Amino acid sequence: MINNTGQSGYLSEFRYALHLAVCLPISFHSLINQLFKLGYTSLMDKKNVERIIIDSLFLTAHRPESTLLKLEGVRGYLSPFKLAYANRVQLVNAFNVDSSIQSTIDFFKTRNAGLTWVVTSKDIDLGLPEKLVMNGFSPCRFHKISGMYLECSDAPLEENPVIKIEEIFTDGNTEMIARAYGYNDIDYPKYLYSVTSNHGDIQNRLYQAYVQDKNNPIGYGFCSYIENNSIALMRGAAVLPEYRGKGVYKALFRRRLADACQTGIQRFVTQAARDTSYSTCLSLGFEEICPLELYEWSP
User: Fold this and answer.
1) Cα 130 from Cα 118, distance rounded (Å)
2) pTM value > 0.85
3) Which of 71, 184, 207, 209 has minimal Cβ neighbours within 10 Å of its Cβ?
């Protein structure tokens, strides 16, 4: 777990690490890695976890079908889909925010595509949400989200006599996925949750939930192993409306955690919507690292 007891705790650990690095014949980098495994971390480590959480919102940018933005002051991508939630942008410097917003809107407008702007806590302090709203953006369906982190070496499954979880090694039931999450079409979820679309060092895994003795899936959970298979990103998951409140979502989450632990992964990140999955993630041991907000624009 990340140590978040205050500056004095960080400084004492940091000074101790420096002392050991000088006195022992090991590199400082190796020492920090060992401290991390023991549950200690410096301010640099927390910032690194935050970076991973935010970067993981841009995984689709690495797919060959995506177009990377080359605009001043922002990073992002245009996917093959025109939907706002299929394309993402983030501010990377604050030198000329108004110009960056306008050039981004112009880029997507000429391609008749929408976009989602990822806003960090630093962006909130800069007043970026107000600027986005003034330029025609509106809060996304899942507007306020929490970047969260968990470190564990074992995630035991809970027996559920009603629900069974199965890993799917081909593309899942896209009609169910679209209805469970609330997508308006099946093409984008089929693209997004494809287990055969592994690219770079990213490995995807997809799970579906079933009521015992029935063949039709009632929910799904998707995850990706990132950072050279050292971290598991808990991605999209949802349950059909008529089966919510029965422990299906948590069962999908536990199975993904357990399977990742079996491969040797001990670090997990996710982005949880505050009004839906946030409380479940807290109950599973996740802690908040960074608040995030999402705003969308459509032509």
Assistant:
1) 14
2) no
3) 184
